[in-house]
């Protein structure tokens, strides 16, 4: 029986359909960020307009009829309040109409879950890197909760790259443009901040912007990306050895970066640890990851009443019980 | 030459050095980072660690003696002993001694950065502090409080004599302990420290 997942925590309104762990469809509409970043209310308006169309597209691609959907999952948080609310409202309306189970889910947990499933891992250490989040995660020994072993002291690495792209006037203003600009650049020294398994990015970006007045965009983009990713690699390497992990995956929007995956792969290889990531369409925010996690959680009977559904802007992964297996 | 331990940042070997058996801590090349950054980090950290070990020694903190230092490698004497982490129970008098040596270290204008039972060794000459890989020369009260927090957490509950002897021996002990209380209230550290 197919399960539908709705994701709307930030710029992406995503709808995925999953059946028995197989992804049948993964459709999305993405708010055009332009050079003003995300204005919450505008993004929410955009999602409201495209929601029905994306749901229909996802059903068609999966070749599933709406009335055959047997369960619904949606992103409860963390994310941008007005955006989360749009996804939740759609999910609740659908649950009422179809009279099926519904479950609110943690966004980060869904990111890790899909990376784990698609790279055939059971209990990996996970580096979760996106716009708003940058965390090193591992399930505790009883596999009931995620532990945050390390994380950013200030902003997420994706947010840092996006803001930098905007300040440099790159188009489109996000991380992949920084990567493109960085090709063939030269290294310039930038602040490097790793404290144990934690790291910080705000100072790095400020300095990079400052240096861009005297250096080429190419060199600064290159150095910014190399420094930020090296910080993530060092913190992750420490966590891998500390937890004696044998498997390791990267997930979240920034996991789309080819360069980051190459660097992390090199860390894993050095310690003979298995490394993996999901294909890129499942690293960016997407509905399939929500559907995948929802199916596992619903199968174990953890659906909730529609009237008890809510959303939360701040919803830390280590505060959530892990119910997927 | 024998590999003694493999860390995230460095490998420690036992080697013969001008006739003596010493430990060599090598910060090897990390292929994932660009060469300039890699060199800069490894060189800077090796130098900083050497400086911290020397400063601690000069202040009378028991540490392994540094024998030599090259670009990416530290050579220091091998201590025969057991780290507190591997002991069934903490011998009497040791918590007080921990407080005393930590106070001495802080008064020398530095912090350890990873002050846990894994980095305290009971040897013939008494309690030694080892692994200065994350040490810094700084008078930061927060840094000092975190040293204290880490050792309290890794020892587990009890051992009030540690804090007492720290306050008694350290010139700014009171300030550090009140900072520690503040940090403990932040709570985050409770969830995130794995032991």
For this entry, give a set of tags.
heterodimer, A: 325 residues, alpha/beta, Nucleotidyltransferase, domain 5, 2 domains, 5-stranded mixed β-sheet, globular, B: 195 residues, alpha+beta, Phosphorylase Kinase, domain 1, Transferase(Phosphotransferase), domain 1, 5-stranded antiparallel β-sheet, 3-stranded antiparallel β-sheet, 42% helix, disordered C terminus
Give structural notes.
The complex is a heterodimer of chains A (325) and B (195). Chain A is of the alpha/beta class and 325 residues long. Chain A has two domains: 3-110 and 282-319, Nucleotidyltransferase, domain 5 (2-Layer Sandwich); 121-277, 2-Layer Sandwich (Nucleotidyltransferase, domain 5). Chain A contains nine helices and twelve strands. Chain B has two domains: 2-77, 2-Layer Sandwich (Phosphorylase Kinase, domain 1); 81-192, Orthogonal Bundle (Transferase(Phosphotransferase), domain 1). Helices cover 42% and strands 22% of the residues of chain B. Chain B has a five-stranded antiparallel β-sheet with strand order 1-2-3-5-4. Chain B has a three-stranded antiparallel β-sheet with strand order 6-8-9, covered by helices on one side. A two-stranded antiparallel sheet of chain B has the order 7-10. Chain B is globular. The A-B interface holds A 147-149, 187, 189, 192, 196, 226-227, 230, 233-234, 237-238, 240-243, 262-264, 266-267, 270, 318 and B 6-9, 30-34, 36-37, 40-41, 114, 134, 191-192, 194.
């Amino acid at each position: 029986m197919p399960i539908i997942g709705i994701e709307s925590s930030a710029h992406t309104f995503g709808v995925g359909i999953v059946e028995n762990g197989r992804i049948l469809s993964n459709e999305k509409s993405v708010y055009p960020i332009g050079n003003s970043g995300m204005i919450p209310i505008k993004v929410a308006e955009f999602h409201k307009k495209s929601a029905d169309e994306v749901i229909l597209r996802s059903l068609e691609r999966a070749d599933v009829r709406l009335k055959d959907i047997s369960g619904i999952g949606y992103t409860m948080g963390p994310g941008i309040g007005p955006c989360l609310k749009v996804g939740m409202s759609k999910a609740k309306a659908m649950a009422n109409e179809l009279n099926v189970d519904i479950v609110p889910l943690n966004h980060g947990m869904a990111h890790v879950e899909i990376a784990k499933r698609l790279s055939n891992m059971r209990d990996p250490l996970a580096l979760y890197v996106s716009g708003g989040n940058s965390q090193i995660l591992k399930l505790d020994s009883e596999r009931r909760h995620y532990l945050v072993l390390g994380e950013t002291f200030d902003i997420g690495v994706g947010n840092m790259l996006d803001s930098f792209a905007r300040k440099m006037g790159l188009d489109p203003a996000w991380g992949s443009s920084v990567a493109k600009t960085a090709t063939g650049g030269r290294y310039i020294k930038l602040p490097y901040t790793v404290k144990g398994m934690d790291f910080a990015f705000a100072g790095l970006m400020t300095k990079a912007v400052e240096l861009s007045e005297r250096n080429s965009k190419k060199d600064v983009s290159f150095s910014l990306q190399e420094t930020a990713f090296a910080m993530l690699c060092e913190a992750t390497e420490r966590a891998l050895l500390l937890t004696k992990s044998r498997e390791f995956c990267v997930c979240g929007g920034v996991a789309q970066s080819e360069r980051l995956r190459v660097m992390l792969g090199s860390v894993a290889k050095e310690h003979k640890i298995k490394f993996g990531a999901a294909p890129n369409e499942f690293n960016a925010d997407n509905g399939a990851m929500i559907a995948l996690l929802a199916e596992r959680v619903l199968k174990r009977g953890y659906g909730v009443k529609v009237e008890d559904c809510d959303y939360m802007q701040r919803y830390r992964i280590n505060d959530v019980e892990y119910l997927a297996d | 030459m024998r590999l003694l331990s493999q860390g995230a940042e460095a490998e420690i070997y036992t080697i013969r050095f001008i006739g003596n058996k010493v430990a060599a801590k090598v910060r090897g090349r990390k292929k994932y980072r660009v060469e300039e950054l890699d060199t800069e980090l490894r060189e800077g950290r090796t130098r900083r660690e050497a400086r911290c070990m020397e400063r601690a020694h000069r202040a009378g903190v028991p540490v392994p003696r540094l024998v030599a230092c090259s670009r990416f490698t530290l050579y220091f004497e091998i201590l025969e002993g057991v780290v507190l982490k591997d002991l069934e129970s903490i011998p009497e008098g040791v918590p007080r001694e921990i407080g005393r040596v930590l106070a001495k270290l802080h008064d020398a204008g530095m912090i350890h950065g990873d002050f846990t039972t894994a980095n305290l060794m009971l040897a013939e000459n008494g309690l030694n502090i080892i692994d200065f890989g994350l040490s810094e020369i700084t008078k930061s009260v927060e840094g000092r409080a975190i040293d204290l927090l880490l050792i309290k957490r890794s020892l587990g509950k009890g051992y009030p004599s540690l804090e007492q002897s720290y306050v008694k021996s350290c010139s700014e002990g009171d300030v550090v302990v009140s900072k520690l209380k503040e940090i403990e209230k932040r709570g985050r550290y409770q969830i995130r420290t794995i032991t």
